[in-house]
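quick one before i forget lol
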Amino acid sequence: MPQRLRTTALVSVTAACAAIALVAATPASATKPGSGSATGSGSVFMVNPVQSSGIQSLTDQKDSDAAVPQSAYAVVPLRNLDGSGYLRGKWANVQSATGTPAYSTTNTFNYTRHQDQFEQVMGYFWVNQAQEYLQSLGFGSTLPGIVKQPFDVKIDQYGGDNSYQTDKPYRIRLGKGGVDDAEDAEVIVHEYGHAVHASQVPGYGTSLDAGSIGESFGDYLAVSVGLDAAGQYGWPVRAEQACPMDWDSTSYTAAPHCIRRFDTGMTVQTREGEVHADGQIWSQALWEIRLGYVAMHKTTRDWDTTLIDAQFRFAPGTSFSAAAKATYDTALARDGAAAAALVKARFAARGISF
């Protein structure tokens, strides 16, 4: 099967994209009573069914509820809602192209995967979770804020089995085909990762290296946010950690399912000249630094904070070398000489020197 792509657009939505039908709330819906509350609850996948169950043989089966175990779901708090009764809030604003928009006067959104509204809940929860994770690292308080605004999430608005992000305005469009993309939290957070880069460095991604780093960071952030959520809510993790989008990729990869990996051994000398493939060079360095921080009795949050803080210093068309140097400098200032030496060594192992 051809490698699955995850893309980002760094320009305004084009006329072709604008032709995609958008379904907004009808005038009648605007008169519905709201919930009057900023908190609620809803059912989501614990990242995704493959990760939480460890069952590599799961398949989509046309959105069948019977295709995944009931144990793959969890009821989670939905925070920062605007009180309208819809899945709109401080950090996420769900707009759906198919099905009826989820609505509840009690902010209770319990659906299963055969219902269109389930993916709407996934979109709201995981975008909000990603923003809360960034804020828990200090972004928006002790460090500059990142994407601190309502973020539009458009469900099943791309007919192909792909998703993408745009930044004018910020939004993600989650596709369908095989496993619908909004059923896998790592797809959602990957696309949000592109918005993180665009928020930090307007116009980011104008070179092959910068684009590769963008795809890599999206994969890495998806895994990191998912693992942090698993720890926060006590969810099981029964699949490989360094293996993003293992549910979404069941339709086009062999088991163990991964859209890409963090342990390919690729270097700049073996790069392919395509951002999704070459991003695995960068993501392997990020993952190995993460493991090294833990071995040094630092935390994964320490590394994520340093990594994301460093990205403010990337140029829109950064090279691997320049981005690695900015990350090294940030690690030296934040975490000390030993951590910086680890960063330098792990990038050097991938053929990235400065």
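fyi The CA atoms of residues 28 and 101 lie 13 Å apart.
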